[in-house]
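Reposting from the mailing list since nobody answered there.

I have sequence plus structure tokens for a pair of proteins and want to know whether others read the tokens the same way I do. The first protein:
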Amino acid sequence: MNVRLMGDALRAHAAANPDHEAVIAGGERLTYGDLLARASGLAGALFAQGVRRGDRVAIFMDNSVHVAAAIYATWLAGGVITVINPQTKQDKLAYMLADSGASFLIADGQLRRVWQAAIPAGLGLAVNSAAEGEQELTDLYFSSAPGRAAAIPVDLAALIYTSGSTGNPKGVMMTHQSMVFTCGSLTEYLRIEADDRILNVLPLAFDYGLYQLLMAIHAGATVVLERNFSFPVRTLEIAEAERITVFPGVPTVFATLVSLQKRDPRSLGLVRRITNTAAHLPDEFTRVLGTLFPEADIYKMYGLTECKRVCYLPPELVEAKPGSVGIAIPGTEVFLLDEDGGPVAPGQTGILHVRGPHVMAGYWGQDELSAHMLKPGPVPGERMLNTHDHFRQDEDGFLYFVGRTDDIIKTRGEKVSPVEVENALHAIPGVREAAVTGEDDDLLGQVVVAHIVLEDGATLGERELKRHAAARLEAFMVPGVVRFTQSLPQTATGKVRKKDLVAGSE
């Protein structure tokens, strides 16, 4: 299969196996033949309405078969996708539409109150469940409009906006060749094959969620899209009913599953792979997830939007390399440098740098910020990614996440990794979730603060928690302040929003 552009895999699998299920969502089931037919019709309609090679098409919808069709239609028309989280509010949506210079919007009708006041004049519009005067998306699937603007591999395929937890979100520019390469690398080490069935509960605006769809289509597999993870028991029932073999998640999802498994044990024996990214997966979670998914390999991974994925820990080494996020994904290279750009010895902390075809082209319209992240590489003219994240690397080359530059806690003259403290806290009986931050302190410089969510019925107090922590951590790493809470603030993609914890304490 010769895949150069992001639409090529869909065409190839639709030709070779048109009746194989591609996307399942909301009671609808599309085969590869169905998906290509819808995407091709919509691509023709987009072209007829003025979308040309390189134009941005914004997609503002809940997870559905329509999102999948819109994504591939945009690529078949030569356009650039910008998938926007359906939880996005009006002001932020208006900013993203203006920043991307989108020429067309494909939206859900039930989100009309948000997008109707946000769209600029002259923006093309197609709506699922359209109102009077609006183009009905399903009608466009059957367009016979001719023409298609062909792209080449170095053309942009996507603007993937960061979560924007501070300031305005940034559009990460990804080309067709970088995304095709990434799909190939991910499916290789995750061993995704055509008989796999991937369950995705994450928004497709989140690159981790988006790539569940893209990996499935790349491999000729099946993806089951759920709108969210609001009902975990129902999610597990769907996983069983749909014979799911790949279950991706983030730590907040797995924290809920771990808590549920402790109260109501069950077993999903068809799941063969569990994948985690976005934040560190505590070792205690790994143990309990092994009882829920007894046949599954567990992949601990690390990545960031600017290159999609950096590294993964081969599942057979989970016990041999506790706490590690592994090695570079196939076809790429990672290494650590100090603040002055010099090499870092094994066991020492350094800043992670990444080389490979998966590195972004830059931030859309943000040359200064792009230069902050993209540095000259060892090959003349090359740009490598400076993640600005701190890691250690052992003698075997395996990586251990220490913390983001602004997360490292400096206390008593020592540097504390929040991840290391959180891992110890998660191992304490009664702790469901833990997040660690630093707060300014006149005497210590910073004090380590633990934000704790307890299991239902747990009666753990501050003194007992500190005692357990002291048995697992060096004295300077033991939290000086413990705050119990009902829940931890999260981004729309399930990451813990630590800046809100710090702001809340102020």
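The second protein, same order (residues first, tokens after):
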Amino acid sequence: MLPAVIPRRGVEALVSSPRGGVFVRGSAGARSVYLSLVPVPDHDEVSLLKNEFGAKRFMGLLALLVFARTALGDAGWRTPQVGASFLVDDPNLRLRRYCFLVLDSVLEAACREDFHMGSR
């Protein structure tokens, strides 16, 4: 059973168990301090870190993830913007036109408006 912290003034439980917070954030002046009471999982093999964040190991690695986000700041932690995607079923790519689509115009628009178009 994991130890836990009882939330109080200045201590916020980010992840809780029935006994209290197992991953908490506290204030130290203008800074936030994080405390994880979940042990880091053992691992014998070398692997990519992104492959380690599965359901069984996530809580043990959450503190590392929060540290990386804090250390990198906004510059290193951005969600990519997702543009629109269009799929054209079975076009004849030897022709410059497919039904109502003029492929040269679609290419120019995709470059200008940042969308993706594919075929299958």
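Reply #1 (J.P.):
I read it the same way you do. The CA atoms of residues 25 and 34 lie 5 Å apart.
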